[in-house]
Amino acid sequence: MAPGLSVREMREDEKPLVLEMLKAGVKDTENRVALHALTRPPALLLLAAASSGLRFVLASFALALLLPVFLAVAAVKLGLRSRWGSLPPPGGLGGPWVAVRGSGDVCGVLALEPGTNAGDGARVTRLSVSRWHRRRGVGRRLLAFAEARARAWAGGMGEPRARLVVPVAVAAWGVSGMLEGCGYQADGGWGCMGYLLVREFSKDL
Questions:
Q1: Is the four-CA dihedral 184, 164, 85, 16 of positive or negative sign?
Q2: Which residue among 14, 85, 103, 188 is least enclosed by CB atoms within 10 Å?
Q3: Per-residue pLDDT tens digits for 126-141
């Protein structure tokens, strides 16, 4: 674990800083996710069809070619920002929480929510580390805290098992590697047109 690092509930005056951290985290991956999504064969076919149709309406060939791509990239980015670029309301597991250095610098944020059905365990809804504090054990410290909260919540609710689910964008290879190193296994996800955009990692605690 990272020395001199603690996790506590976010204070109200820290909310603007945490929001900026979440938005910066989304920006770091959104371009790669958009590239991954729009280079899948079905997406390429749809973009080609849209471009062909626009060539009959627009006088500019370049505009007909670029406009569908621009709109598709914008849609992917807006979707990611609306999903992960904001703070969720406090849920059944409390929070949001922040990781704080001994100097008082907020360097990470975590939010959790209960699963939809009994036995689903807890889900990480936000997990972001400031770019200035990455690769220093902050993500692992937040993950360990999330696991402890999930265990305590499962025990208090009489859940049949303690389990934690962490969704990760397909382009976030560093996070996927960290989770696999901590014993998590890829277990489904969600996407578009049969292609995964977000993988879900889970672990029985």
A1: negative
A2: 103
A3: 888 988 888 888 999 9
pLDDT in tens, 89-122: 766 777 789 999 887 889 999 989 887 777 778 8
User: Cα–Cα distances in Å, from 102 out to 6, 51, 54, 116, 123?
Assistant: 8, 54, 57, 36, 28
Q: Do the bridges between strand 5-9 and strand 163-169 make them parallel or antiparallel, or are there none, so unpaired?
A: unpaired
In angstroms, the CA 49 to CA 69 distance is 12
Asked if 7 and 98 count as a contact pair (C-beta separation under 8 A), the reply is yes
pTM (predicted TM-score): 0.79
Measure the CA–CA gap between 196 and 175, rounded to whole angstroms. 16
The span from the CA of 96 to the CA of 22, in Å, is 12
